[in-house]
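>> received
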Amino acid sequence: MPNRSGSPTPPKRPRGRPRGTKNGPDAGPVGRPRKDGTPAGTSLLKKKKKASSTTAEPQTKPTTVSTTVNVEQQTPIQLDTEGMSTASVDALDRSKSAECALGEHTPVSSPSLHPSPNAVDHQPSFPNIDQDTNLFLNATGPIDVDEEPVNPAVPPHAPTTIEVDSDEDDEQNSGSSAESVMPEFLGEDDENVDYLLGDESGIEGDEDVEFQAVPDDDENEVEGVSNLKQKRASLPTWLRQTWADYREQLGSEMAKNASRRPTCYDRGTFIDGPVSSCFTIAKKFQPSPSDFYSPKFFVWLPHLLSSKIPCPACLKALRKSDKGSTQFLNAKGWAKSPRRVVDLEECIYIVGYPYACPNSQCQKTFQSWSPELLKALPRSLSIHFTHHLTYRSGLTDRVVALMRSCFQHGIGPSPFAEMIRTQHLRQYEHLHIEYLEVVLIRTESAAGHFLKKFEPFGLFSNRDGYAGFTPSAAYFRNFYVRYIASHAKEMDQHMAMLSADILQIDHSFKVINHLGKVSGETVFAGGLHTSVNEMMEIRSMTLTSSKAHSQFMPAIKAVSTSLDTYGHRPITAVMTDMPRIDKPELENTLPSLLTNVVPVPDVTALPQLIIPTSEWNVTELGSRFQVNTRLNTIMSNLQSDAGDFHVALDMEWPVDIENGIQGQVALVSIAFNHEILLIPLHKFWREGELPSALLIFLRSSNIHKVGVKVNADMKRLFADCKFTEKDQPFVGAVELGHMAKQKNVAITAGIGLADLTAQVLKRFLPKDPSVRVSTAWGNPELSNSQKGYAALDVYATWRVFEALNSTSSGSSITQTTPGGTFISLLSPDRSTIVAHGIITPDQPKALCGVNITKTRIVVTVTSILVPGHVVPGELMHSKEDTPFNAFPPTPFHLVCKLKHLQTREPEPLTRTSRPAQTLQSIVYSTPAATTEQPGCDSKHTEHVDDQEGWYNDTDSASDNDQDPAQSTADSTGVAYAALLNAIDGLKRSGVFGDIWHLMHQFPISMQHGLRRPFARSMRNAFFLYDPEDKAAVEAFLATKGITWDKMLLYHSHWLFQRVKRYVPPPEELLPRVSQVLRTFGPLKDAKTGVPLFNQKCWEIATNALENIRRGFYSDPPNVTLYYPQKPDKFGLSRYRCCRGTNGIEGGVHQNIIRWFGSFNAAPDFALELLRDYALYHNLKVGTLNRTGVPYSGSYDVWTRNRISKLLDITSTRFVTQPPEFGPGGWVNGDNFARSTETFGILPLPSELRGQLGMLAYHPGFAKEVKIRHHYLAQRQGTRIAILPVHTSDERSIFKLLIVEHNGLFSGVNEPKWNQVAERFNSHANGSTIFYKLPEQLKAFWKKWQENSNEKSSISINQAAFDTIVHTLSLSSSSLMPVATGHPQAVRDQINMSAALSSETPVEHWHISNALGRHALQQSTVHFHYGEHAPNPAHHVDKGKKRALDLTKDVDDHAPVKVSTRKIRTCRKCGKAGVRPDLTA
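>> returned
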């Protein structure tokens, strides 16, 4: 577009070199300067990308496409695609660039992997979508061709860089590594958005260079490092000459010493460093700064300490020398340069020899610090090399140990790096002071004016001077990750060998809000799943991508396998917060839970519904021929009968209950005329279409398909067939729920099949949750339990239909209808049931002024179905028409006309109640005479939660607490309470719930007056006290004048530590809890009148009683839950309880959040932190709980394993064995087979990986393509890492899938997320697009819908929105610039004129004045000790005269006062100058 002058507007300058620079050979590096002051450099990775990328096509003319997206609301979404078509193409092409560089693509379905790394299976190429203009719509705007990835790889700190904060974290650590432990003061941003804006501060991919394996001979740099345009800061400039001089010194010592070793070896140390300046500077009159920072050397010459060093390469290859003996290495002289490692206060330089193998087939060279050479040395020698090297730097073992300890206790990389830097700076400043003190002494000496000017000490990081160096936080982080990973086998083995009689499992969704994020997105949305044993030791930790059981059950299964491998008892009980949901999966994973356990029936005493096999035939139709033949026979009979035909129809499909993802219909069940047909559809889906007879059957309007929600089932099957609106629909659905409502059998048409079976057939229909809702329905072959479940469901449907078909709709009500009859209230037109109730047994003559006539009757309304129904004024006391929603809560009495009433079936099953217990036997009432109010004790030991629970502060008595006996009851609550009756037939379970988690589910108001009394009553209903412990405590309290009840009220925590408690069996527990719920639920608050329970509480109460009936909260029989601890100071026993799951939340998860929450650790860092914490926790907590003695060893299990092995080998040479390593002491995991348990991230199952279109992990692919987040990909076992949607390219792909014509999102319902994931994963490239799980895409879909709704809402109210924008927008002329302050150093703000300067010129009169003052002071001193000096004792005793202040300044201009006082005379003799005390 031309500008105003008519000349064409120059194109916009792309990103890259700044304006005005040249691209000549001498052009400097481009980009933002680095934080350490060095110029920016061009990354090697970026250079490779540009070399492999294709030239971008010219931008096309911007277009705007309006696309209507078919979502649930069917809202048209306007997609602004201006400037996006070509850009999106470029974005997709860019994502393919890495793949194209490797050759042809391999289809996703190809499972083969070539062994050669040059023939690696790669991701499939993108489908040819260039012809579809709708496929290049970016979700967030145009994508620049040269744009960096959304989350670019950030290099780690190079270890030779001077500044600590010179680099950010690497690509894995996309979050900020700043912790709250140390304040931010280095000028860093408070939020790391490098993943969004990019990071140009360093060289990409440099982490792989620094943390690769240390080579055998590191004289030459690794390939590619020398090509880096930006050179890292190297060693000090003076080191080369210093090293040359030191080589000569060592050579001279080795030649002169009789041992032929360096002098430091003769002194018995490997360290040879500078002598203290106190001894060296004394002989040098004019010192220099270099005299104070001479380097400290670690002399490592193993050939002088070992007779011969075998060649590691020849040992590995079993290669011998020419003489057939072991091949040894030859020394080649000194290394070219020493290696620098960082110690706590200074750097140490390692010096040594290179060693060469003389074998012609080997000829390899090894440095003396080569890892392979160290392994070849005797352990007694190599153990003295206490340094950990990376490629260009390293750390001493002291620094590594301190770093690990700091990380374990919540001091993260940033504060630790600052800590080490502070120690180095402190040492630097100490040497600086030493130097300046020497300079001061030399200057003030007599010959000081003959000296030359001294050299300044220099800065800490000056390479020509002190050359101080400390690594960055990123370096420490990456070092820690690799250090812990190198010992992962020993650490995981220690955990795997622990016992687990009881397993407590719990999910934490708070930990993942702090750890394991990528680009600000949570990678492990399923939370951290942890299991601990009865000793509170961690047995497994799993970071899960979803909440599905399949994400963590393999870890639980591996625990069971390890128990069997190492001779432990199997798991006998599992504690969980969701016992009913977890029970099927746990029992399937841990068969030991079913030992000696009798299953509890799902419901009541109703007989179970059973298919009479003598009358009904169940047939599975597995082939297309069988389906067509059988259904054609049915339809031919229908045509001959020339009438309508009813069949029961039901369908099953796979469902993942954790994330809601559903699959295709897997089974169709049909029942009629004593025939049940089961039609599996898995084979037909693979063939592409259903049998023709089945389609005709479903489309026939003469065949009425009866079922519960059968219409929705048929629509689902229709959608699975990918039919469109043009195709003939499936018809003939008859809803069983509507039929039951019309027959007055059900209140609502949404009633379930199990309730209908119980209501109509008076039979119990089992609904096993592990079968009913399961992903197993998607298996090619269905199990017998699945077939039986489907057959029984469709049989129940047919039986209920027959019963309803023969049931009348309800009879009319007369005056003779007995009281208590269940009735339905109809609308005046008798078309709708508006309410349910019963006929009041006692019929008065009038009710609230309304007469009861022959056409009227009083009913008790128990439920309102239509709140808007209006009761006629003639039936009301107010004589006004009144709607139901203006009435008080049900139940209430109402006068009704007989013609508006009809009978209905009774309520669903009522349960037989047990004899009621007295409330006083369960409820603990607050003593009325108590007036003291001591402070509340801590929270209950068995419950730890970050939220205040309504049941926590039971150790107090408040004036607001009500007396339950004097509280009024709510009538509605009484009706609900009547349903909470106990049930017979109680059994136990191997899976148990957490009682405090159960109580936490009740939403009780914190202000309710009955809150604390109810909490105490629930506590006392669940827990019974051990009689022996209680008697012992009561006897002790009696000696102190304290009662049990008073202690229980105010200090229950103290009691529960000393008294064991147990939860009775279900048959005893159920009536106790039921009594409390029924009693307290309806009671009202004295002030507000609100009942304690709302409707939600009553629903929870019903579910809680059912769980109690199933035995989920009773103590497991023959399982120990209490373990003794050290008795208290009074001699009373103390116990530790392992009941429930709060020990995980309070003892593990909260510690992780508190210690590591501020780290914002990436997945790799998070995993190693958790692994190290698990070891630390198990050694510290487990040792104390098992032995009662605190753990006193180190946390280096590999070291303790080695000690144990050496002691075992040399045991016969010792008088006694150390108790901690003898029998019953440390267990050496190296003596046992390696465990199969996996810590942290479980690999994706191969079957699921294939279903989602993912390929297996391949190291060659990861190396050549340089995929990002390769650590996650390796752990997950996938070719590309599985991550949530977090990049712009991924959002673009997702949006393209949404707007694709006739695509996966074009249906009315939600798409099949497995298919969406498979389609999405075909675009993954490992750079900007990654693998996705179905639940991750579904979660992003919800966010997309919210954003779409926001945009639609704005478009609807566009005028108002534009008005607000215009109102809030100010013209540029009215905007005032915001002032910016300029910081100043303190030295620039101080008034330097007030400082005492030593450079003030000296006048002559100053000299005379100083001499005079000094002479006067000396005269005064001599006077005190002269011939006529006064007696000091006498002077001190009298003390009336002030002593002369020799430090007081004298006014130089004031006249000197001469004393005129006469000389004293003696009163006795009259002589002058004689003191009486001296003459006496």
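>> The chain has a mean pLDDT of 76.
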